[in-house]
TrEMBL record:
Domain Fe2OG dioxygenase stretches: 277-403
Protein name: Fe2OG dioxygenase domain-containing protein
Family: Belongs to the iron/ascorbate-dependent oxidoreductase family.
Signal peptide span: 1-19
Organism: Triparma laevis f. longispina
InterPro entries in the record: Oxoglu/Fe-dep_dioxygenase_dom, Pro_4_hyd_alph_FE2OG_OXY
Keyword terms, alphabetized: Iron, Metal-binding, Oxidoreductase, Signal
Gene Ontology terms, MF aspect: metal ion binding; oxidoreductase activity
Pfam families listed in its UniProt record: 2OG-FeII_Oxy_3
């Protein structure tokens, strides 16, 4: 790889060294080009690394690059050509190789060197903020006057599934009662179907729901009932977040901080910069028995599969639950019916890919299911005991979560979804 980079640089240097050098104005803006500058959050690897300078709103007209121990003046256009070739070469480098491939310094009018690492740090911070990659949810501090108490929470089941073939990493599913009380459950359901309570329990209101609008697999036509466009826009508005969503986020945050021994947890609603605007952080489900077996296996999100874009430029591709500053992709699912009998079924089914063994949650009004977003799962329909048209309502909040207090060991910085107990379940490959 280094040989390929050196060959690229040498060829470009030989091509450009005959260019007429222009007088270099003072002050001179010079940059450091490294792998981390290109693929770790400053700018997409498909764009020139000199955007690092543009991102700081610091214009320049000429740049000094040290090539094979020789300093050469390049115009901005020549630098663009050089950096584009370099970016293409770097696309195939080893992810952990952050060695400096081209070095330079930032020189101020008094000819005093400035640490180039500070330039990259500043650019990364701006990138993070610009694309809302780490913006916390609108969760207020846990109020002592709140009628809700964490002591009301009860973990019904904690399951591990889909073990990695290379390490001990497994995905988690946690079912929790008491986290969402009856009033919050009702308020959340009002967001999805603000109609007569008795009416919505028996049949979907077509004013708010549309057949075929639920697309559990990106790029494919929906098969079940999903919220119509107007409802989805209102639910995911950046201007005014529904108070019930704020309260849900606040309670999830409080629960996670409790099971992580009081460590502050950062909750970020899935930004559009991760998968694009077509993947919203909030959505609703309303399967009915009449839907039949129409729902496909899918995942909510996986940081190892993010497309090129702002999120991937900053964090790179990584496995969920690696810890450090890389957020864990987690979904919070809440079952919302006022009345639901367990024998009606309609739970969420999860698939252990290595063994093809499955696990299904049980539906209960107000029950919260926290799950790793990279688990393969699907919606299941209620059975005929529920009736043909009775919907099983649920809301899904897709989150990025991380600890705000770091330790030296990366694995200690992984947010846990529940404490381990002897009653935990291990599904399929997780049994090994």
């Amino acid at each position: 790889m280094r040989l390929a980079v050196a060959t690229t640089l040498l060829a470009l240097y030989c091509t450009l060294q005959h260019a007429n050098p222009l007088k270099l104005p003072a002050p001179t803006q010079q940059i450091i080009i490294t792998k981390s500058a290109i693929s770790s959050g400053v700018t997409p690897s498909s764009l020139p690394p000199n955007l690092l300078v543009h991102s700081l709103d610091e214009p320049y007209s000429h740049v000094h690059l040290i090539v094979q121990n020789k300093k050469k003046k390049f115009t901005q256009r020549q630098l663009d050509e050089l950096s584009l070739e370099l970016a293409v070469t770097l696309d195939d480098t080893i992810p952990n190789d952050k060695s400096v491939l081209i070095t330079a310094s930032n020189i101020d009018p008094n000819n005093k060197p400035i640490d180039p690492k500070s330039i990259i740090k500043k650019a990364r911070t701006k990138h993070l903020k610009t694309h809302s990659l780490d913006t916390p949810m609108n969760t207020l501090p846990w109020p002592s006057s709140s009628p809700f108490s964490l002591s009301a929470c009860k973990i019904v089941e904690h399951a591990s599934i889909d073990k990695s073939p290379t390490d001990d990493d497994t995905s988690e599913i946690v079912s929790i009662d008491g986290l969402v009380c009856s009033s919050l459950r009702s308020s959340l359901l009002d967001l999805l179907s603000p109609s007569d309570v008795e009416k919505r329990e028996k049949k979907i209101d077509s004013i708010f729901w549309k057949k075929g609008a639920y697309d559990d697999v990106a790029g494919e036509d929906g098969k079940g009932y999903g919220l119509n466009d107007e409802m989805m826009i209102a639910l995911n508005s950046d201007n005014v977040e529904p108070s019930a969503i704020t309260e849900l986020g606040r309670r999830v945050k409080g629960y996670l901080e409790d099971v992580n021994d009081g460590c502050p947890i950062r909750l970020t609603k899935l930004p559009s910069s991760v998968f694009g605007p077509h993947v919203a952080p909030l959505g609703g489900n309303a399967p009915t028995h009449s839907d039949g077996s129409t729902f496909d296996w899918h995942i909510d999100g996986d940081p190892s599969l993010t497309p090129p874009g702002a999120f991937r430029d900053y964090y790179g591709l990584y496995n969920n639950r690696v810890g450090g500053d890389k957020p864990r992709f987690v979904s919070a699912l809440v079952y919302l019916n006022e009345d639901w009998k367990e024998e009606w079924e309609g739970g969420t089914e999860f698939l252990d890919l290595p063994s093809e063994e499955t696990y299904k949650t049980r539906v209960k009004p107000g029950r919260v299911v926290l799950l790793d977003s990279d688990i393969t799962h699907r919606v299941t329909t209620p059975n005929k005991l529920a009736g043909e048209d009775r919907p099983r309502y649920s809301i899904v909040l897709k989150l990025l979560i991380r600890k705000e207090r770091k330790t030296k060991k990366s694995e200690d910085n992984v947010v846990v979804l529940a404490r381990k107990t002897p009653d935990d379940k291990y599904i399929g490959s997780a049994k090994a």
